[in-house]
Amino acid sequence: MASYAITDDKIVFTNGTPAGYTVGTLQDAMNVARSNGKPLFIVAGTYDVGNLSVRTSNGGGAPLVMEANPGTVTLRFTTGTFFLEIDNVPDCVIRGITFNANGRPYAESGNGGAITAYRAHRTRIDRCTVHGAPGMGIVFEQCGTRQTIGTTGTDEPTSPAGAIAGCEVYNCDTAIFGVANVSLSVTGNVVRNCGNNGILIWQYSPRFDGSTVSGNAITYIEAQGGGTGQRGNGVNLYRAHGCSVTDNRIRYCKFSAVRANVCNDTIISGNNIYAMGEMAIYVEETDGASGENDVGTVVGSNLIDTCGSGISVTNFNNGGRLASITGNVVRNARQSNNPTVSYDTGTGISAEGDCVVNGNVVECALRYGIVVGTNNYARNLIASDNVIRRCGIGIAASANANAGHMLVTDNMIQMPAGVSTENGIVAYTYLGETSGVRIDATMSGITPSTYPKIHLGLNIVHDQQTPDPVPVPCLASLPVF
Predict the structure, then answer these.
(1) Which of 98, 276, 320, 480 is deepest in the core (most CB within 10 A)?
(2) Which residues contact 38 (CB under 8 A, 6 or more apart)?
(3) 446 vs 439: CA distance, rounded Å
(4) Which residues, listed in sequence order, are joined to residue 199 by a DSSP beta bridge?
(5) How many other CB atoms are there within 10 angstroms of residue 78's CB atom?
(6) How many CB atoms neighbour CB 147 within 10 A?
(7) What share of the chain is helix, strand, coil (3-state, %, to 5)?
(8) pLDDT value at residue 289
(9) Based on the number of CB atoms within 10 Å of its own CB, is 126 exposed (0-12), middle (13-18) or buried (19 or more)?
(10) Cα 133 to Cα 174: distance, rounded to the nearest angstrom
(11) Cα separation of 376 and 394, whole Å?
(12) Across the strands, what pairs with 237?
């Protein structure tokens, strides 16, 4: 039997019934804390609970601050149709509590999680642990407010969604799901061992989102629900404009570390990425509908080691374009061992429309260091000042007569031992996922008369095998995980 007491500065909830305490459930204590405008402190222990709610219809409609000393309190989901829901009550704080979802399914429809904040602006989940959820771990939906600014009708944030910070989320289907929010902050969390996705930032239709995903450690993300990339990602952005994904450590994902689909004005930088089953950073445009174009991306200063392919800004055919891909290091792009990946991987960096690929280092890409253009989907492409080393082909540029202009200049390309320097720069044609590519011309055959859209500047292509002080071989194959 549990009970609570009202003190001068807080409400205290505990197992048992000490003298002076009132017998009651955790829900009772939550309501009393809110009605009295005091924080609720939970004493160390394990509590079997369910259907915990923070609504306008209980607790006087006031915010809840509920906390414990981290690692001392476990709430175990054993009854009811949902675990904890914060519904239309802003400024709540949940701190230092472990939520054991106990493998129990949520009977509620929609986007429910073990912790769900719905239209609960400025909510903060801090230093909590969530595990064992067959669905979502933590969900923020429609949190934060916005207003229309200017004659163009752009919507700008007036109040942020809130924050998920310093939490550990594991053994869930998806760890963190933010949908239709404004400026959600997801920082400093540990996400691991999830069945289908790590962190999702989505909008129902393309619009400004402004969320920040930074400083998180994400590892072992499966794709148990199948598909060709909608699952199996460390961070997935969908229709969410103005987001930043920075300084995360992402390892062992079935598909991508960061996947941005139909997202304008995205920054992906400073991420440390290892062991991706498909494309490590994928900026794509799959919808192709009017007003749903992926435009404006910075992909910079990421370190990628061991992946199917490294970085791709693609789907110019659907309107995906306009990116700066600079200062990245990509190593060991090899053939994917993910059976649902239907195309040949092994490319370091690829871009299609209105992109600059500058100042990157690509080493040990099985097929191509850098690819600019896909058939006629090529426009205003620059590949410059890159170091490309020990790749099957250094740089491949589209040979299509209808392609736009491509400038390849000031690159340093070292071919592997036994591979002709003619493969340093080639003109190619993409034949399809199952047919691969055709090499139309090697470097000496790319002339202004034969390929007037491919402009070659001063590139250094060589096969000098300078001794390495500590030789490191290219990876033979991707790890199985």
Answers:
(1) 276
(2) 6, 9, 10, 11
(3) 12
(4) 176, 235
(5) 13
(6) 10
(7) 5, 50, 45
(8) 56
(9) middle
(10) 8
(11) 21
(12) 201, 260
The residues, any chain, with a CB within 8 Å of residue 408's CB and separated by 6 or more, are: 372, 383, 384, 395, 397, 425, 454, 455, 456, 457, 459
Residue 230: CA count within 13 A, CB half-sphere: 7
> What is the model's pLDDT at position 110?
64
Residue 213 C-alpha from the chain's centroid: 8
Q: Which two tokens stand for residue 334?
A: 């090899």
What SS3 state is found at 30?
helix
Identify the bridge partners of residue 393 per DSSP, sorted by sequence position.
368
Burial of 290 (0-12, 13-18, 19+ CB in 10 A): exposed
Q: Which residues of 245-265 are buried (b: 16+ CB within 10 A; e: fewer)?
A: bbbbbbbbbbbbbbbbbbbbb
Cβ within 8 Å of residue 310, ≥6 positions away:
279, 280, 281, 304, 328, 330, 333, 347, 348, 349, 362, 365
Closest CA to 37 of 20, 14, 60: 60
Q: Which residue has the tokens 């009977």?
A: 107
Here the tokens at position 333 are 């792009």
Q: Look at residue 277 in the predicted model and tell me its pLDDT.
A: 96
Q: How many Cα atoms occupy the beta-carbon half-sphere of 146 within 13 Å?
A: 19
Distance in angstroms (rounded) separating the CA atoms of residues 131 and 172: 6
Give the span between the Cα atoms of 233 and 315, in whole angstroms: 19
CB contact at 8 A, 238 and 202: yes
Which residues are bridge partners to 382 per DSSP?
Answer: 356, 407
Question: What pLDDT score does 312 carry?
Answer: 97
Mean pLDDT by 10 residues, the chain (481 residues): 97 97 98 99 98 98 99 98 98 99 82 94 99 98 89 78 99 98 98 99 95 99 94 98 98 98 97 98 79 85 98 92 98 89 90 98 98 97 99 98 98 96 98 89 98 98 88 89 80
* 285 C-beta neighbours (distance < 10 Å), count: 25
Burial classification of residue 10, based on how many CB atoms lie within 10 Å of its CB (0-12 exposed, 13-18 middle, 19 or more buried) = middle
Biggest CA-to-CA distance, the chain: 94
| Residue whose tokens read 């071989």 | 473
